[in-house]
Amino acid sequence: MLEKIREGSQGVIAKSILVLVILSFAFTGVSSYLGSSTEAAAATVNGEEISESALEQAYQSERARLEQQLGEMFEALAADDAYLASVKQSVLERLVAEKLLDQTATELGLRVSDQQIKNAIMTEPAFQTDGQFDNDRYLAILRQLGYQANTFRNMMRTDMTRRQLVASLVGSEFVLPGETSYLASIQGQTRDVRYHIVDASPFVADAKVTDEQAQSFYNTNIAQFMSPETLSLEYIELDASDMANDVSVTDEEAQAYYDENKQQYLKAEKRLAAHILINLGDDESASKAKAEAIYTKLQAGEDFAELAKTESEDTFSGAQGGQLDWFEQGVMEPAFDDVLYSLSKGSYSTVVKTSFGYHIIKLLDVQPGAEAPFADVKDKIIAQLKEKKAVDTYFGLQQTLADVTYEVPDTLSEAATELGVEVMTTPVFTRTNAPAPFDKPDVLKAAFSTNVLLDGMNSDVIELDANHAMVIRIKSHTAAGTVEFEKVKSGIVERLKQEQANEVAREKAQTLMSSFDDAESSAEFVTQTKLGRFDQTIDAAISNKAFQMAQPAGTAVVDTVALANGYAVVVLDKVNAAEGIDDNLLSALEQRLSAQYSEGDYRALIATLKAKGEVVYSSAQ
């Protein structure tokens, strides 16, 4: 997990990446922090349920990851319900595997200590500045993710325990030196070859194809001539962002808004907090007594920061003398927040209980609130007012669009007249090549629905994005079917001519191979020495054939291979041993083989745990 946090924390989109990464392991454990529920289970693993909400959260996280990774391609894939169903099923299988691992780790008594978690976080580069652990950065990242430190550490414990099990069972895989040496010798092997290409192009002109032959090919291969379902849409689109461009806001309006809403432009007071925390533990009375004992030490004159370092069970803030961060009012739990904002600078509280434990809170510093000048926020206010006016207009038009297209369901003209806009038309497209934004799943679903596609009615209002919607209806529709023979006849004729030409080329190549004389034919062949397995200087079909042929035993080996436009005669003269095998190459191959073996072991482990346990999927899965 931390490796992914490290990669994702380097760019401007760190927040979104971190959310995806941490949720990828967190979603299975979140329910344990929130308590039990009575919702239906997506699956039950040895009596423990994976809830539908946990599956949905994991699925949405995976969708977001795929969308970020695949970009526009994902929109097209997402239009296929079968694809999304397969993604959801793979997510469920991952949750089942994680649950099996967690159960096995518990049975084996595996544990991860607080110190191990602390070390993992403090040595994680994503939480460091100039190579040193930065508590402010750490807390800032957690705030961005919406996590408390305790919750994050619990999720870390789950993840690290799981990886401890996998490492103990799978990480022991090893690769023998002979395996890497053999693989290196095979991959690095080169071959000396000669080849002669018999081009089919000259024979195309002499090929003859009758109408009967073309018709017969068409009848025999009718499945190749299926045309996909196509359609074109009429639509009315409303977009508040476009409307905002036509909205004007005067300086006077902006000034008036500023004067009426000055409270919005106050920089809120912030307070720098520190605390000494004693976790609730199993015995709350003992925890409270320990916190009160620390308070007594403070009253006796001992230093707050030193006590935080030695006594606080929040090890991260404790290392900083108890310092947490700057907080605006309302950010922390009410019990903590009320006390913090009741203290004077430099003072500390009595023992305060929250859901995290017993605190002694100290106010280190205060940043007073301040009023932002009008000139500093003028542009922001104008943009806000433009957006507000545009959104108000948008919602009015959207309601009119919904009403009119419902009342007059077989045309968009009435709605267009009412709104003062034009009815737009899309080009013809299929389900898999729809232009944006018609490639969005909701639009495709509506376009191919019975109501729109078959009945010719207007769709409901489709929300594309925030304050962006459209209504669609069918302009034209062509059902999937077989393309008529006359429309594909010329293509069939060309194909059959090419096949005839290729057959002539094949026969000539066979003749040349049968009569091959090494001494007499060398002038007709192109020579390629030390041809590598992945060499791209010659046709891939020739290269592949060369590495499929048996090693010569005294005399050259000859064979033929089909090309895209003809045939080739390939002569294998010699197999050369691999060169340049060094320790770096062997090490890389060893790592690759070890990863492959470990992956196989992991899959076998999950399969074994499934076979030994009881995994029950709900009927909906």
UniProtKB/TrEMBL annotation:
Presence of keyword Cell membrane: yes
SUPFAM superfamilies documented for this protein: FKBP-like, Triger factor/SurA peptide-binding domain-like
Topology of the protein relative to the lipid bilayer: Single-pass type II membrane protein
Top-rank taxon: Bacteria
InterPro entries linked to this entry: PPIase_dom_sf, PPIase_PpiC, PpiD_chaperone, Trigger_fact/SurA_dom_sf
Spans through the membrane: 12-34
PROSITE patterns linked to this entry: PPIC_PPIASE_2
GO cellular component terms listed in the entry, alphabetical order: plasma membrane
Keywords carried by this UniProt record: Cell inner membrane, Cell membrane, Chaperone, Isomerase, Membrane, Rotamase, Transmembrane, Transmembrane helix
MF terms (GO), sorted A to Z: peptidyl-prolyl cis-trans isomerase activity
Record protein name field: Periplasmic chaperone PpiD
Intracellular or extracellular location(s): Cell inner membrane
Annotated family: Belongs to the PpiD chaperone family.
Positions of the PpiC domain: 268-365
